[in-house]
Design brief:
Helix content is about 25%, strand content about 30%. It has ten helices and 21 strands.
Amino acid sequence: MVIGIWIIAFYLLGTVAGKEVCYHRLGCFTDDPPWSGVPGRLLTGLPDSPEHMNISFTLYTRETGNNSQVISAINSSTIQNSHFSSRRKTSFIIHGFGSTGKKGWVVEMCLLLLEVENINCIAVDWHEGAKGTYVSAVNNIRVIGAEVAYFIKTLQKIFRYSPREIHLIGHSLGAHTAGEAGRRIQGIRRITGLDPAGPYFEGTPPEVRLDPSDADFVDVIHSNAAHFPAIGLGMYNTTGHLDFYPNGGTVMPGCTDFIPEMKQSDFEVIIADATIVGGCHHSRSHEFYFESILYPTGYLGYPCETYKSFESGDCFPCSQEGCPMMGHYADRFPAKLKRVNQKYFLNTAADPPFATWRQKVFIKLSGVKKMRGDINLVFHDTEGNTKEYEIASGVLSQDQVYTKYLDVEINPQNTKKIEFLWNKTIFTLLWARLGAETVNITHGEDGHSLIPRCITRSIV
């Protein structure tokens, strides 16, 4: 009788032997290197049990509507009796530290994906394992990744379901969780890392973190990269086939969070004991992905070595092979597997839907020889919306050519007209006139140039 109790305890709670813990179905976990004791990962501890973390998988399909079905690989009949279909692709969405998969952005993303694709969308919740200290959550993702892998194996067993039908989408620690699942299950079609967590992952061996070998295709969005001396919650180094760095990848427009500057050693001491929840910059990665589902052309990434080169226009327009779209449609890029660690840059708007279209503006002025003021272009779309952008300011010269790269928030396909606007200073002579002799705009996607129909307007 006593022996039987110990056997039950082993299967339900796991066993700890030294620096190793074993859980039924999932195997054993150790804190030997590279899981701890290596540069950038001087943490200790072992993951909690699946039961302690209360891990759940919630299915959303077009049949469930705004409702859902809780399904379990342990009780596989729940999958068989659900609306899960082996004839559809499946997306797993995995939250990060301090978050949940039962509400908020995870559920909203599932519902939006179902509007554009007839898929199985599974929200993975591990909030009980994500609400303690950051270090404990880092240790716990190995068990979460093993549970996701076990779930996929169950689908293979029941439905002969291929991993090539599966897309794992993970934010922060959820990105590395997806990587752990991919390390255990070969042949997963795609993993998307949304600002993969940086502390205890940056610079670590590939088996510890998300890396290109974890799936057939790995794409990554960096929105709060830890680019010292600035402190961020995300990774700065590339970790996929396509790595996107919107707005440079560290500080996002529209966010008011203060990003401190400190020594990395100080940061490691703080994060080891603190409960840190990702702020606006860190969350932008999943917000960008969400909006990219609806605006597939508004997140074009340009191949550049640095953000500075991108800003100066060195990588504009796209080459003959084209440019990938950051976010949901990144897998449509023909050259996505050309090599690993391909870096792409783009700018976004400060507010939803964040989408922009990069354009090179070339303006040649006509009128008086020199005067002070500024010249702007106003873009009008077919729905009556307008956006104004400054091209030049200060002393303006006749016959001078002004060139500027704009990230326009109006889709070129919906542009109705472009207005040339000259704002005079109070010192400008009343009869002074300034116009645009030539206005040429080049689109970034195909390098196509056009001469728009402009309306010239002066403001005193």
